[in-house]
Write a structure and sequence with these properties.
18% strand, 17 strands, Rossmann fold, 7-stranded parallel sheet, globular, alpha/beta, 2 domains, 3-stranded antiparallel sheet, 37% helix
């Protein structure tokens, strides 16, 4: 177990990625502690871990509470910091809340890393592809360019593709986004993730311990929340399809994302823990393949044999990006990570899991309410 790691703290460990990682690490012989506040928006009324995590040390508490966080950190060899508010749309109006949970709690972690006498050897923080904003493109005239966030006016006229920031032209070629690409998030969520990763990397550098900021793309798979209406189009679309309801695909449906299967995310994260050489690293974790939202909706409806109508509505949300997919050259070179899952295979595995769930929310009213909230705040144009 590189660097003689044994005791691992996972904040937000009851969540989708954290719980899957905990199961994997526990099977490898690590001693796992989970700190989680079981946020109802994600967990509903559940306040317990799944049976396969019965042997972990569970602390029901909040990372914004310094005493709770410090007590959880003591005697740990490594910490994987997942506890955070997620979701682009909600962040656009819950700004102070996202800042408190994501940035302030991370400052508590960094205080501990820099100032306390501890045994931490490795710190991993979940960053996000959202920090790149519109990502990286190639202009025939100017080479590599990084478009600004799309304006409300351009999207209102169905100009969904980003334009060249120099010429204003739309003849851009989408490129894979590498870690040296420009950071310019278009949502408050993205801003908080940018700050989180920079804080952790600097704190680890000051203390001369290993630090990793993992810029996860769109993580999906069995176990993800089917309750949270603010994140995860796979969950939202699958619930709508099961209810035979219309699926509203925003923009023209050609917007794309890099969907990375949970097993690949666990593999990449575990490889970071096991890396023997100390250092600070910022790494993309994705599939390296863009998939359009229209393709996602069609595949879900087809696989579930749903009668749902897919409506390409032209609606759009403020803060959403058009495209982004990861360049994985650096993560392969640094920790040897190469994704194994193709999107279609992973999606089918996820949908099989959805069909097996007995506690799927009875309706999609929470999703409908989230759209109303965005519209009332001027953040959703229909």
């Amino acid at each position: 177990m590189g660097k003689k790691l044994n005791k691992i703290l996972i904040t937000g460990g009851a969540g989708f990625i954290g719980s899957n990682l905990a199961v994997n690490l526990q099977s490898k012989g690590y001693e796992i502690t989970i700190l989680d506040n079981f946020l109802p928006q994600i967990h509903g009324n559940n306040k317990s871990l799944p049976p396969e995590l019965a042997n972990v040390n569970l602390i029901n508490g909040d990372v914004t509470d310094r005493d709770v966080f410090y007590n959880a950190l003591r005697s740990q060899d490594a910490v994987i910091h997942y506890a955070a508010e997620t979701g682009t749309g909600q962040s656009m109006y819950s700004i102070s809340h996202y800042t408190n949970v994501n940035i302030q709690a991370t400052s508590i972690l960094c205080d501990y890393i820099v100032n306390e006498d501890h045994e931490l050897k490795t710190v991993i923080v979940a960053s996000s592809r959202s920090i790149y904003g519109e990502g990286k493109y190639y202009s025939p005239e100017y080479g590599n360019v990084y478009p600004q966030a799309r304006s409300h006016e351009s999207m209102e006229n169905n100009g969904f593709e980003p334009c060249c920031p120099i010429s204003g032209r739309y003849d851009l070629e989408l490129l894979a986004t590498d870690e040296d690409s420009r950071i310019h998030p278009s949502s408050f969520y993205g801003i908080t993730k940018q700050v989180q990763e920079q804080m952790v990397i600097l704190a680890c550098k000051l203390r001369k311990i290993s630090g990793f900021a993992l810029r996860y793309q769109n993580v999906y798979g069995p176990g993800q929340s089917l309750k949270n209406p603010y994140t995860g189009i796979l969950s939202i679309f699958s619930r709508l399809a099961l209810e035979q309801k219309e699926i509203n695909v925003f923009e023209d449906g050609l917007e794309s994302r890099d969907f990375v299967y949970i097993d690949d995310v666990i593999d990449a994260t575990t490889k970071c823990l096991e890396k023997e050489e100390a250092g600070q690293y910022v790494l993309n974790v994705g599939s390296g393949v863009p998939v359009s939202v229209k393709t996602v909706a069609n595949e879900i409806v087809s696989y579930l044999k749903s009668s749902s109508i897919i409506r390409i509505s032209g609606a759009f949300r403020e803060g959403d990006i058009r495209h982004n997919f990861a360049d994985l050259s650096l993560v392969e070179k640094t920790i040897g990570f190469v994704p194994k899952w193709q999107f279609r295979d992973g999606l089918h595995r996820f949908l099989d899991w959805v069909l097996a769930q007995k506690d799927i929310p009875a309706s999609t009213e929470d999703y409908d309410k989230s759209l109303i909230e965005l519209k009332e705040r001027g953040l959703l144009n229909e």
